[in-house]
User: What shape does this take?
Amino acid sequence: MTFRKFAFNNVIRNIRLYAAYLLSSMFMVMVFFTFSIFSFHPDLNGNGMSTSAYIGMKVSSSIIFVFSFFFILYSMSSFLQSRKKEFGLLMMQGMSMKQIRSMVFLENMVIGLFATISGIVLGLVFAKAILLLGENVLILNGKLNFYFPIQAILLTLVAFIALFFFISLFVSYILRSNKLITLIKGNEMSKGEPKANIFLTLLAAILLVAGYGTAVLAERDMVINVMIPVIVIVSIGTYLFFTQLSVYIIKRLKTKKKFFWKNTNMILFSDLSFRMKDNARTFFMVAMVSTVAFSAIGTLYGFQSAFIKDASNKNPYTFSYESYGENEEHDVQLINKALQKEKVKANSEHMMWTSYEMSTDWTLIAKESDFNRFAKLIGEDSIEVEEGQLVVVEYPDSSISNTEELMKQIVELKSGISLQPKEVIVSKALPEQYSYYVISDLDYENLPKPIDEMSFYAWQVTDGEEGVFAVSEELYPQLNDYQFKPTEYRVYVKKKQYASVMFVGLFIGIVFFVSAGSFLYFRLYMDLEEDKQKFKSIAKMGLTERELKKILSRQTMILFFTPITVAIIHGAVALTALSHLSEFSLVKESVTVLSVFFIIQVLYFFIVRYLYTKQVKAEVL
Assistant: This one.
């Protein structure tokens, strides 16, 4: 048997151990290849959205490639740690350290080549579906037809073969300092009872509480000012939580005899402090990577939903037009002709939009007849405003309502009569986000000269809705965006603006989250042989299959959900702070994103628990 054949067979023999590493590497290659397909797509080289999507794909590919380097490096290093005893036995049989390093290099290159080719093949298999998904998510006008991505294949092949080559060199190099006794003993060497430093334990709690408190209490621009300090404080606090605070909590639980001696708790908690200490770096990495995924996707999804909702909520009319007199008649005729051309029927109204200076700001004052005509246009009930009465109108769900300030104001008529508001109503009749006044027609005539006056038109479609989009596309380039406001089309434009960012953020977030789950899987399987020997010994003392499954389930649960729970808390705090910055409530979007990720983690947990328990049971029972 040649040396190369021996290295190849070694990969085949350890396929169970390498399975997660291989699949995760394939996933990384496939995602990178997917973005490369978009980057080199001939239809993504135009203007507007296509350009932003093109740039987004390029940036995403770079981020994923850099992240892939560290992910694969960490994964390979973890596997080397689990194979120490195997290397020690090979050395005892006469293999030199140089030959072991060569073997590791060849093994990793075999895996890397297979992962790269498999990732590209999978990317080609799902290319059409991915292009269709991208076409819908990016809201592109044209279709993204399938093409054979020669450039993407060459780039992915060269990039990842080079990546695996350098990582293979590095991981084989770090083996040179290991002594034979260290390799043979492997994880059996005693590390001593883990101890928690009381000062660092308290510091962990203080840093986390201080970081959370600062992030949650910060308002508006202060969120930006405290962002970097909070990230640093929470990061340090998280690391100390896993290395110190968790060990302290477990040690305290072990002193509670009623708890420690109950059922199988003694077996579970006997070496849990060791595991927490050993897994601290992995837990910290998973928590921080998951937090980035939660925060990025939650923020993008939240802001997209908020901005689109805000755009659609600002104007209840199909079309509206504002003018200070210049080209007014021409523009209104242009809108009406476009409606006739596309066979769109619509009711329309016109009024003079008059604003008056109050102590707070300019405020719209509308007369009763104008308000009722526009209310009728959208199907709202009319109101009755008696002479001498002043009504405050508040736009529903407006984030900039100033109702309280207007209720304290007084409107002076030319006759010397002062009007005091006493009633507040909620209405969408006039698209004014700030609250405003409605008075009787007679009192309106007695108002002083307004500080600002403009002509306002609104159209509400009654038939031919299918032509609304065509009208908007025709008129939008011709009329000023500030004057002409096609509500549905403006929402469409907003969606297009955020589509590429959302698409990129979603994929990167998924990559980060899958990587976090893979880190946990690697760490769990590093302890597999040790767990087999431990439970095999305990089984001789009467451990039942049911008790074994219970212990393994709880052990796996702690491993999986401790860092994810910390990440969810981090993400919730981060999204709360960002909602303070933007003045948009991200509660609904945050709960949705965090819930989806948590459900995925639960499913992943059940799969891994089943596979892990099955292997331990096969050895023990």
Summary: Residues 202 and 245 are 8 Å apart (CA to CA). The longest helix spans residues 487-526. The mean pLDDT is 77.
